[in-house]
């Protein structure tokens, strides 16, 4: 077990059986390939470490690989990825999977190999690769025989990047043999603590369990103190311990070990202070110096800090470090013997740890301000003399606490560079902001750093962008541009940096203004990267503002400058813009995107490359080249997975296209996600796209799944459009026509506010709503309500929907003003549904709809062909209807589109069509006379009117109606007509 803490040998393990059972069960589930996370929260001293140590021992005895890691308290910044780098370093010595992962995914080398080369430039893509690599290495380290149990202590001190990795790893849990157990101090989580939202998110995950560790009960405390003392405590002594400790295991242990004299201390601090006062002064000094570093400190650094402290006069000759004082080793040995300190590690990385974090805090809090500053200065001097003793972040921490501002400035800048190398942008940003905050207080800051404040601020803006703080990136970059007004050329060269961040926050007009101002100053000759990027940003902004002519003109100049400079990254960006502008020639746009992808590969820009894969897939899809779109989508996904970016933004977009294109091509089988875990944040997007096939298959839960996505409508308009549209379709299939139309109205209203009144998806929504109205009108006509006010109202509402679809096609056209194949097909479908709604049901309109969907939309071709057959039957062309219905049924059955197949069969029964599996006779259900009666009931006739038509009495008609209701299981005449129509028992 790597780095397992060593609680006092005198501290027995008692009680906690329920908590041990939870942890043991989680280990066994991990062994079976059911990974999980257990979060253990408790107040300080209650016994988290003791519980986890015992659970780890039991897991190891059962064959698990147990690795222990820690978070340390260095303020808001911390050491990036510390618990995971610590765990993977330990695993690397035990398991070849880590080195294999480094070989396959070099991003991990940044974290584990100090000498690994790292580019100055970094991207969010590289960070995702690092996260994927960490998750992959952990997953590969666990097996059924030896599941991996990763214990992370003191999560409340975790740095931002470690919190991000933990969330990422949890989101990836699927079938790995891995268990993560993380502890945190519940009493440290104030209202704005950064761990609080992370815990809230994690606890919503189905594989995360929460163990709230309570203080000992009276019975448990009695068992604990008896084990500590070797015999039951006297009643008064036990009551005193119980009253003071309130069940806190560590406090109780200290009270018992203090000797149980006549007067016991009332506070834990008093107990700990009494423990230290009996130590030799040299040992006390060593402990005080160690406490300033927190819960743990590396043994070489502690040794060096004591030496520097002694040299500065911080220790008397009899204390540690003095030329005639006792040796460091002797003092440390005594501190260990008195259960104050312990040593952990493997010999190569030994650290001195306090027996409990509360002990370190109590010792440190007893130091006077001047003493504390002096010890921090000793640590700083030790780290400055030998940088290998600690990280730049540690050096910056001690420099700030020692009030050495120049040292804090240089150490913070070095810490920012190291954070950048290990792809920790949040920590990089905090260090850079610290540099900026210190700048005015250090007169020679520029000389010390070898760079000016503008350069540092630009680096901070880049870190903010990568850390997912776009507004902060804009604010920093805007301040830089404003602060360089006295140097117009430099200011102009920086405007494209600000413009990039502005585009990320959709500030198009400001981007156009900045790029225009920059181009007025930047020289045309010789060509420069600054001018090339300024042109690229201006072209993109003009395109986003629908200024296509300006965008094309600027893009042409940008590509020329990029060619001359041989700047593949600029070329990739500009070629993508040019492809989007290429509205008249889809094939030409695809060629430009392929060129952009090649240049992105040449530049090593994986995110731009994936963006190109996605844009090519979208280009092929909207051009109606569905088979090509599917191939591009799979190729792009393979590339995303191979680079560890399968769940990046464009990786997710490619997955969306994969599911959409599969559905369009008639593959309605559920998506195979074996071996992959869908991140929580991507689940709504992917779930809504998978609704297309679910509704077409007739999944019983399709409508419930669509309803569950309502909560995400405000998060993403695309989720609202797809889930809402699929829900309308599902409601229509289930006969809930009024609800379907009401949902369409609500959805259009929502997306009108989100996007615009003429969003192109409104054509699809209008066609679906018209289908619901037409079904409702068909049902009404079957019940003899052809000329009723209700049907007239349905027709009027349908006219509004058709008008909205046509207006949208005119005013909401895509760039270039030309609807693609899908848009034209849905517009035709809207017109055909309106024809069915009015009762005309023109076969020619359905024939046109079927033809337009035949660009590759297999499911809608079959559905349109079914409606075409229905229209032909209504027009009296039974033979043609039989041909179209037969093709529709065959396609529906092959695809597994159950609702559509059943609808075609029902049409065949009603129309007496010769279709496979369709019974043409109805005598086995209703008698001939009952059929006659039912037909007249469908026309709305009363029993007396039916009797007059059939020359029988009204009483006999009533008997026939009762028989029909019983045979159909209907509760009334209207329901009987509807059921008979659905089952094909009534002829059209």
From TrEMBL:
<keyword id="KW-0547">Nucleotide-binding</keyword>
<feature type="domain" description="HTH luxR-type">
    <location>
        <begin position="919"/>
        <end position="984"/>
    </location>
</feature>
<dbReference type="Pfam" id="PF00196">
    <property type="entry name" value="GerE"/>
</dbReference>
<dbReference type="GO" id="GO:0005737">
    <property type="term" value="C:cytoplasm"/>
</dbReference>
<dbReference type="InterPro" id="IPR027417">
    <property type="entry name" value="P-loop_NTPase"/>
</dbReference>
<keyword id="KW-0067">ATP-binding</keyword>
<dbReference type="InterPro" id="IPR000792">
    <property type="entry name" value="Tscrpt_reg_LuxR_C"/>
</dbReference>
<dbReference type="GO" id="GO:0003677">
    <property type="term" value="F:DNA binding"/>
</dbReference>
<dbReference type="GO" id="GO:0006355">
    <property type="term" value="P:regulation of DNA-templated transcription"/>
</dbReference>
<dbReference type="InterPro" id="IPR016032">
    <property type="entry name" value="Sig_transdc_resp-reg_C-effctor"/>
</dbReference>
<dbReference type="InterPro" id="IPR036388">
    <property type="entry name" value="WH-like_DNA-bd_sf"/>
</dbReference>
<dbReference type="Pfam" id="PF13191">
    <property type="entry name" value="AAA_16"/>
</dbReference>
<dbReference type="InterPro" id="IPR011990">
    <property type="entry name" value="TPR-like_helical_dom_sf"/>
</dbReference>
<dbReference type="InterPro" id="IPR041664">
    <property type="entry name" value="AAA_16"/>
</dbReference>
<protein>
    <submittedName>
        <fullName>AAA family ATPase</fullName>
    </submittedName>
</protein>
<dbReference type="GO" id="GO:0004016">
    <property type="term" value="F:adenylate cyclase activity"/>
</dbReference>
<dbReference type="GO" id="GO:0005524">
    <property type="term" value="F:ATP binding"/>
</dbReference>
């Amino acid at each position: 077990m790597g780095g397992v803490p060593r609680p006092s040998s005198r501290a027995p393990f008692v009680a906690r059986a329920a908590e041990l059972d939870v942890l043991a069960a989680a280990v066994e589930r991990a062994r079976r390939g059911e990974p999980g996370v257990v979060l253990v929260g408790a107040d300080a001293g209650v016994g988290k470490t003791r519980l986890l140590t015992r659970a780890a021992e039991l897991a190891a005895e059962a064959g698990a690989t147990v690795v222990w890691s820690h978070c340390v308290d260095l303020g808001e910044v911390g050491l990036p990825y510390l618990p995971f780098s610590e765990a993977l370093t330990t695993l690397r010595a035990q398991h070849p999977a880590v080195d294999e992962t480094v070989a396959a995914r070099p991003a991990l080398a940044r974290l584990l190999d100090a000498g690994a080369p790292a580019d100055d430039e970094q991207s969010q893509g590289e960070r995702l690769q690092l996260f994927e690599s960490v998750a992959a290495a952990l997953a590969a380290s666990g097996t059924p025989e030896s599941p991996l149990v990763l214990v992370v202590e003191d999560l409340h001190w975790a740095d931002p990047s470690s919190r991000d990795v933990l969330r990422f790893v949890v989101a990836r849990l699927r079938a790995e043999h891995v268990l993560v157990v993380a502890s945190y101090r519940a009493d440290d989580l104030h209202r704005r603590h950064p761990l609080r939202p992370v815990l809230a998110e994690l606890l919503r995950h189905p594989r995360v369990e929460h163990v709230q560790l309570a203080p000992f009960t009276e019975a448990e405390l009695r068992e604990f103190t008896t084990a500590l003392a070797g015999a039951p405590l006297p009643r008064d002594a036990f009551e005193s311990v119980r009253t003071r400790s309130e069940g806190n295991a560590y406090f109780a242990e200290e009270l018992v070990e203090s000797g149980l004299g006549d007067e016991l201390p009332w506070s834990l601090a008093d107990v700990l202070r009494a423990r230290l006062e009996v130590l030799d002064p040299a040992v006390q000094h060593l402990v005080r110096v160690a406490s300033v570093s927190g819960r743990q400190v590396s043994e070489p650094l502690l040794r060096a800090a004591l030496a520097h402290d002694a040299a500065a006069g911080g220790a008397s000759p009899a204390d540690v470090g003095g030329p005639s004082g006792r040796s460091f080793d002797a003092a440390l040995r005594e501190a260990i013997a008195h259960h104050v300190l312990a040593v952990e590690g493997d010999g190569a990385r030994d650290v001195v740890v306090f027996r409990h974090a509360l002990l370190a805090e109590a010792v440190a809090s007893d130091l006077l301000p001047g003493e504390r500053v002096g010890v921090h200065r000793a640590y700083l001097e030790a780290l400055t003399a030998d940088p290998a003793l600690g990280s730049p972040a540690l050096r910056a921490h001690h420099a700030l606490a020692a009030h050495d501002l120049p040292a804090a400035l240089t150490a913070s800048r070095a810490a920012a560079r190291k954070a950048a190398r290990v792809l920790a942008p949040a920590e990089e940003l905090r260090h850079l902001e610290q540099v900026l905050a210190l700048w005015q207080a250090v007169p020679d800051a520029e000389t010390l750093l070898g760079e000016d404040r503008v350069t540092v601020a630009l680096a901070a803006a880049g870190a903010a962008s990568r850390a997912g703080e776009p507004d902060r990136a804009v604010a920093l970059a805007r301040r830089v541009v404003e602060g360089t007004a006295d140097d117009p050329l430099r200011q102009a060269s920086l405007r494209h940096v600000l413009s990039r961040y502005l585009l990320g926050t959709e500030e198009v007009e400001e981007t156009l203004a900045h790029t225009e101002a920059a181009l007025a100053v930047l020289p045309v000759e010789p060509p420069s990267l600054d001018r090339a990027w300024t042109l690229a940003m201006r072209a993109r902004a003009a395109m986003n503002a629908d200024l296509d002519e300006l965008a094309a003109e600027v893009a042409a100049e940008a590509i020329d400058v990029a060619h001359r400079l041989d700047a593949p990254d600029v070329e990739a960006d500009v070629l993508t813009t040019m492809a989007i502008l290429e509205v008249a020639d889809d094939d030409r746009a695809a060629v430009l995107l392929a060129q952009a992808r090649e240049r992105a590969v040449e530049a090593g820009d994986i995110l731009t490359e994936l963006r190109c894969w996605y844009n090519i897939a979208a280009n092929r899809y909207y051009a109606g080249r569905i088979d090509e779109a599917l191939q591009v989508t799979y190729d792009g996904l393979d590339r995303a997975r191979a680079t560890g970016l399968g769940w990046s933004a464009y990786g997710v977009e490619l997955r969306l296209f994969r599911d959409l294109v599969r559905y369009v091509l008639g593959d309605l089988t559920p998506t195979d996600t074996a071996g992959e875990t869908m991140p929580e944040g991507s689940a709504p997007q992917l779930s809504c796209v998978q609704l297309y096939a679910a509704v077409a298959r007739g999944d019983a839960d399709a409508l419930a799944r669509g309803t569950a996505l309502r909560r995400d409508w405000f998060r993403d308009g695309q989720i609202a459009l797809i889930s809402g549209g699929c829900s309308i379709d599902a409601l229509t299939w289930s006969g809930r026509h009024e609800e379907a139309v009401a949902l369409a109205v609500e959805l259009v209203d929502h997306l009108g506010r989100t996007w615009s009144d003429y969003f192109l998806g409104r054509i699809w929504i209008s066609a679906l709503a018209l289908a619901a109205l037409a079904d409702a009108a068909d049902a009404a006509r079957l019940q003899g309500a052809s000329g009723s006010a209700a049907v007239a109202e349905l027709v009027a509402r349908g006219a509004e929907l058709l008008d909205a679809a046509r207006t949208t096609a005119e005013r909401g056209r895509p760039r270039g003003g030309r609807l693609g194949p899908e848009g034209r097909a849905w517009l035709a479908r809207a017109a055909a549904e309106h024809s069915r709604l009015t009762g005309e049901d023109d076969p020619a309109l359905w024939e046109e709809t079927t033809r337009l969907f035949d660009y590759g939309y297999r499911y809608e071709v079959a559905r349109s062909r079914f409606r075409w057959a229905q229209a032909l039957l209504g027009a009296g062309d039974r033979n043609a209807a039989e041909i179209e219905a037969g093709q529709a049924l065959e396609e529906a059955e092959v695809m597994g589109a159950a609702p559509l197949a059943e609808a075609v069969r029902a049409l065949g029964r009603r129309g007496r069509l010769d279709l496979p599996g369709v019974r043409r006779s109805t005598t086995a259900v209703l008698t001939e006379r009952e059929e006659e009666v039912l037909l007249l009931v469908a026309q709305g006739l009363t029993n007396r009117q039916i009797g007059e038509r059939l020359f029988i009495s009204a009483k006999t008609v009533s008997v026939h109606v009762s028989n029909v209701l019983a045979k159909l299981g209907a509760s009334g005449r209207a329901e009987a007509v509807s059921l008979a129509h659905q089952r094909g028992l009534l002829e059209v």
